Inverse folding.
């Protein structure tokens, strides 16, 4: 399951400890600055995509991510060459 998250705390790319059931993979992490409408104070906000993966599926998920990255790299090399 993939969804977008907004947080005041910079996330780690992977989180394998905060849940007993799920691991989390985060990508497209972007830092922006927002102004609080009431106090007019500026603060940093992070937006990112998060995927929630059951712990028993984690190794398979990582293998698929690595395979997808290798395939993408091969496609880019073929396009350049």
């Amino acid at each position: 399951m993939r969804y977008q998250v907004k947080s005041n705390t910079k996330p780690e790319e992977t989180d394998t400890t905060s849940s007993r059931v799920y691991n989390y993979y985060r990508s497209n992490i972007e830092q922006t600055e927002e102004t609080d409408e009431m106090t007019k104070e500026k603060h940093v906000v992070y937006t990112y995509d998060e995927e929630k993966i059951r712990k028993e599926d984690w190794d398979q998920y990582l293998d698929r991510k690595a395979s997808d990255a290798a395939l993408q790299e091969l496609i880019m090399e073929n396009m350049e060459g």
User: Anything to note?
Assistant: The chain has one helix and four strands. The mean pLDDT is 92.
